[in-house]
């Protein structure tokens, strides 16, 4: 039984994943950057400070 299902649990090769990503992402519009986001409370300040410290842009 394990051999019959081995292909299901084997991850695809890396280059196959790259082709899949290209195929799925190609029809998407180009990425944009988010404009200024209001920091309305302590949680917002905390999260956006962590994002800034890691140099991560928030999603639009």
Structural write-up:
It is a single chain. The protein is elongated. It is mainly α. The N and C termini lie far apart (47 Å). The model has no long low-confidence stretch (mean pLDDT 83). The chain is 47% helix and 0% strand. It is built from three helices and no strands.
Measured by DSSP, the beta-strand proportion falls in: under 5%
Order of helices and strands: HHH
Largest beta sheet, briefly?
none
Q: What is the rounded distance between the termini?
A: 47 Å
Rg is: 20 Å
Number of helices, where a helix is a run of at least 4 consecutive DSSP H or I residues: 3
Overall body shape: elongated
Give the integer mean of the pLDDT values.
83
User: What structural class do the secondary elements suggest?
Assistant: mainly alpha
* Share of helical residues: 40-55%
Number of strands: 0
Weakly predicted, low-confidence segments: none
SSE diagram, text form:
Layout: H1 6-9, H2 14-25, H3 42-53
Features:
60 residues, elongated, 3 helices, 47% helix, mainly alpha
Quickly describe the structure.
The protein is an all-alpha fold and 60 residues long.
């Amino acid at each position: 039984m394990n051999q019959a299902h081995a292909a299901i649990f084997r991850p695809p090769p890396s280059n196959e994943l790259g082709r899949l990503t290209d195929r799925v992402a190609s029809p998407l519009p180009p990425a944009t950057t988010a404009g200024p986001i209001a920091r309305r409370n302590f949680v917002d300040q905390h999260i956006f400070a962590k994002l800034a410290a890691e140099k991560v842009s928030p999603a639009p």
